[in-house]
Amino acid sequence: MSKVLLVVLDGLGDRPIDGKTPLSEAKTPNMNKLAKMGINGIMDTISPGIRPGSDTGHLSLLGYDPYKYYTGRGPIEAAGAGVDVKPGDIAFRVNFATVEGEGESVFEKVVVDRRAGRISETDELEKAINEGVDLSEFGVEFIFKRGSGHRGALVLRGENLSDKISDTDPHKVGEKVKRCVPLDDSEEAKRTAEIVNSFMEQAHRILENHPLNAEREKRGLPKANVVLLRGVGKCPHIPSFEEMHGMKLAVIAGTTLIKGIGRLLKGYVPDIEGATGNRNTNLDNKVKAALEALKKYDFVLLHIKATDELSHDGDFEGKKEFIEKVDKAIEPLLSLDFRDVCLVVTADHSTPVSIKEHTGDPVPVIVVHEGVRVDDVEEFSELKAWKGGLCRIRGMDLFRIALDLVDRMEKFGA
Ligand code: ZN
Ligand code: ZN
Description:
Elements: E1 3-9, H1 22-25, H2 29-37, E2 39-44, H3 54-61, H4 66-69, H5 73-80, E3 90-100, E4 110-113, H6 123-132, E5 141-146, E6 151-157, H7 187-208, H8 211-218, E7 226-234, H9 241-245, E8 249-252, H10 256-264, H11 283-296, E9 299-304, H12 306-312, H13 316-329, E10 341-346, E11 363-368, E12 391-394, H14 395-405
Parallel strand pairs: 1-9, 1-10, 2-12, 8-9
Antiparallel strand pairs: 2-11, 3-4, 3-6, 3-7, 5-6, 10-11
This protein binds zinc ion (2 copies).
One zinc ion (ZN) is lined by residues 11, 54, 308, 312, 351, 358.
């Protein structure tokens, strides 16, 4: 049976400035060849006008209705950081940060740096928190895991926990650390907020007195003396990709968020050397890994992040140049046997450089497979793709269209 290779350039779509977008201006001979070989269209990843996050966008692209399965970023980031999250776990995204001020309580202190000087040496701090914080009086276990840079994840595991609680991250410097409060009237939310506040106080005490921070102070660096929590979510009951679609999934990605989605769906998510999720990522290694994964897995997602980052920076030229780099790197995909592989090239949402945020503008799609009705679109561009034979579809439609082409769709009716 043939397989699917889904290539996603994060935030690729754009809004024209003087009739031009980074993609329409980039020299992309390889993507243009694919556009000529395949059927083209535009896609609303979730629904027209909806601004997808990368997480909800990717769930749609993988055939999961995000309105049914998405429960916040915390569980996905925790899975991406390597925590084996279980349904019912309460998960947060974490920042190591710097606070200053008098007194004992962390909630009297003011945040002066939300990233603790972009600290990266957090191994020791992770260990100290895992060994030092004690939540046993609440009958709750926790897993604290460092991520890349100043980031990390916290998971609470136990009975009667709720994600209807607030962040402790004030999201701004110059403000006090926020006390976690319940967001509904349930006992579970009240209890969970209390547990979170206890965690905050204990973690602050441990970090404040940690030798690494004394040493950082000597070197004139901001101390990582608090962990700020945000993006809370309850880990969903989500069927694995194989249970859901009867196919084995592999995810080739550099960013924690997309790796987290792969792990949540119980896919194969290798660590790729040099895959950083930024513009210096090793694209050749990622393409190689995707081709390798295609030998063993039925559905391979190859995710490329930097297009989105450059868009958030409002960097038109940078985005254009990076697209050109991707175009060179995907050249090996042109010699795939399209009787065996359905190749899809698209994006998870638009991130126009003029807006620097995700928008609901549809994104271009190419589908290449033996037997598709090749249309007369000759280049890969959000300004041309709408003329193609796919017309305007949604992310979940794209997933089904690909499955139909590779003969993995069941007949509806007799
Ligand atoms: Zn995205
Ligand atoms: Zn983004």
